[in-house]
Amino acid sequence: xxxxxxxxxxxxxxxxxxxxxxxxxxxxxxxxxxxxxxxxxxxxxxxxxxxxxxxxxxxxxxxxxxxxxxxxxxxxxxxxxxxxxxxxxxxxxxxxxxxxxxxxxxxxxxxxxxxxxxxxxxxxxxxxxxxxxxxxxxxxxxxxxxxxxxxxxxxxxxxxxxxxxxxxxxxxxxxxxxxxxxxxxxxxxxxxxxxxxxxxxxxxxxxxxxxxxxxxxxxxxxxxxxxxxxxxxxxxxxxxxxxxxxxxxxxxxxxxxxxxxxxxxxxxxxxxx
Amino acid sequence: xxxxxxxxxxxxxxxxxxxxxxxxxxxxxxxxxxxxxxxxxxxxxxxxxxxxxxxxxxxxxxxxxxxxxxxxxxxxxxxxxxxxxxxxxxxxxxxxxxxxxxxxxxxxxxxxxxxxxxxxxxxxxxxxxxxxxxxxxxxxxxxxxxxxxxxxxxxxxxxxxxxxxxxxxxxxxxxxxxxxxxxxxxxxxxxxxxxxxxxxxxxxxxxxxxxxxxxxxxxxxxxxxxxxxxxxxxxxxxxxxxxxxxxxxxxxxxxxxxxxxxxxxxxxxxxxxxxxxxxxxxxxxxxxxxxxxxxxxxxxxxxxx
Lengths: 273, 305
Description:
Chain A is mainly alpha-helical. Helices cover 82% and strands 0% of the residues of chain A.
């Protein structure tokens, strides 16, 4: 009974943060529209290039003219979700200058709620294009309902990892904005080497070796494989490293990032406003 | 166990500036505040007031020393005091892009207020904000933002209110309204300000802070007594204002003279010298002699400036 009450309390606080964030974001509706359309620009070029390459019978590993739209659309959703890394520090920066952050920090609530609140609000924010793109993917390359559920859960997992990174960057947004831009550049570099818009096989060997060290690449790649293979057991057996890295990231990233947020905040406090 | 609700022990904060420079924002500050007391921390800009309130509200950590709030060491158990305190830095700390109601509802959920609708109506009525709750905060005046902010901090029914310059930039009427409301709250208030009038009207205990050090600390009346030896007098005079001023300037026991519209204001080193003024006054056509009570502003100017 007590644990049910506790869960309800956690949900209530998390939902309150999400609701507030969505209300603030929707205050300016065109910003949201721009947010949906910007990732389209990034995937538009790969769509054109892929189409031309396939005319010359080029080979990109498992990607064929029949399934490459899955690759591109997963890339679009990841680009939408990547905003979590950019927007969470931006929200925290706003809260710092609005002086609402001290009001939150001095309130009796756990910072994990803040993380989950941001994840939910970001998901709510991208819900419409997310659903539309999933429908488009199902039209281009149909999959079974269990696989679809697994893929949606995987996207949610990626959202948790990205939000964790966002919160880590957010710690610098409130404590030392200099470091924010340094780490933001690092995050951009990691994403650049995550094969979001171009397939792994397109890169030279040296770059492929670097990409192999990037955990974000595995998170994105396993979602694509799960979709086109349409058999979760086969995907787990065929890509064990991807699965290990996915699970490890899902568990470790939020813990490390929230801990880092707490450590950085405790050591440096709020500064700059 | 001590009876004080707030106690600080050698509280210090050092900020590291660029090029290795250090600044002592707080330097061995020791204060103790009783439950229900209205405490005012007065000081000029950069004296350490906001640093003090930030440490006590667990926003930042001290470099040295510690504080006990309601029997809890804030360094060891910062989360344990969060339900007991509420902080207001400046006169907003609310979200401008959502409505007043959405603000209060959000903070109710965050702090876990059970019947939030009832609570929102109760606190908003207290500050006359009930008809403005459905408006976006960005459309509020400064006074309304301040009132909504005060509603926010009262949602959790905290024991202690930390208020940093709450009436900054507000008009006289709104300031008076807010002081009256705060005065009648059955809560401990820790107020920082450089507005002497606000502190004078609201607080019973006052500390003067300058360069991170508490330079005088005590009840408002005790502090006044300290300076009762000194005396400030208004002398009403129609003609020969300048001549009288020149003559008074030759007296060693007069520390300050200023020319007013209808006379002169003078400050004596000690009350005992009062009688020595009458032979001088006899030479002029004096219309009024009135002793002026020392205000908190006078004390502040004597101590800090």
